[in-house]
Structure formats: C-alpha cells, structure tokens
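I have been asked to look over a protein record a colleague put together. What it holds is a sequence and that sequence's fold in token form. Please read both lines and tell me whether the tokens look consistent with the sequence. I do not need a full report, just your reasoning and any doubts. This is what I was given:
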Amino acid sequence: MGPLQIVWFKRDLRSVDHQPLLQASRLGAVLPLVVVEPDFWRQDDATARHWAFCAEGLVELRTELAQLGQPLVVRLGAVEDVLERARRQFGVAGLWSHEETGNGWTYARDRRVAAWAREHGIPWHEIPQFGVIRRLASRDGWARRWEARMAEPIAPSPAALAPLEGLDPGPIPTAAELVLAPDPCPGRQRGGRREGMALLESFLQ
C-alpha cells in the first residue's frame, strides 16, 4: 500500500469544502482519521451534549467517506500516539488538516503533533478554512486577505478514495465510555452537515 496521506479531521466533519481531504486524495492512499481524545473531553468546556453532537457528525462523515471508498477511521487516545502507531504500521507520507482555532489545550496538543511531525520528517499541511490569519505582525491588509479567502470556491468531495484493506474503522465511543456525566438537552442542535445546512436554510428563509 505504501506510505499513507493522513487526513486528520478535527472540527471539520465534512467531505465537501475540505481542502486537506481533496489535496491529500490527489497524492495517493488516504487514511481519514478522527482521534477521540479523552483528555480533551475532560476539559471544563466539554460535556456529554457536545459529544452527542460530535458523534452524530462522525456517523454522517463515516457514511459519506464510505461511499467514496474508505470509511472514516476512529481511534481513542492521544493524537501523537495514534499517529506514531500509523507511522510504524503503514508509513506516513504526509499529515493534512485544517488550521484550528481552539483553546489552550488544543494549542498545546497541536504543538506536540508539530514536534512529532518534525522528529520524523513528515510534512504537516495545515490549511486555513476561515478568516483567522495566524502570526500577523500587523492587521494592515487583513480585510483584503479575508475577502480573498471568502471568495475562494468551495472544494468538492474527492472523486474516490482507495479502500485500505484490512483496516478496522473502529467504533465511535459512547458518552459513557468517555466517562461523561449525563447532560440531556432535548432541544439541542443535531450534529452533521445535513442538519447544519437545513438550519442555515431555515434561517435564510
């Protein structure tokens, strides 16, 4: 099979408008990966209702990617440990993700991932997806950059993904398995791109 392009999904659970997925698919076999991080879900700003929303998005994304040829792979643990196992098992030609704007915990996590990638000579391609522009020395010209980014065409889904034979996609954990306290919210927004698009359309109408 050869070294894989790993597409690491974070807060971007969709196959459409996903430049990392599209670009990685042009280079070879893709391992579409979500890492469920127990330490993240222990943070004060994460709850069972957030996980329910996320899990619904994972189910939909897994179905979309399976229709392209390779279902979403879900693993539990620290991201750098999961990536290291993939490197030893398959070889990793490149790591792809969107840039993430999260909190201090995700920032520190991404620094560890960057150190892992440097250590093993693996290019990590982080692609911007919205108006946040990192490491600006000045805000001069920010609006022009933002307008150019917002005018970019939406990336289509890849035409196909090569199936990774013998690779277990893995289960999507339950809130109980993540030791999350019950947090019922009957009227909450449902997860998944279809639900999000329906809500947007209802708002626009």
Observations:
- The longest strand covers residues 30-36.
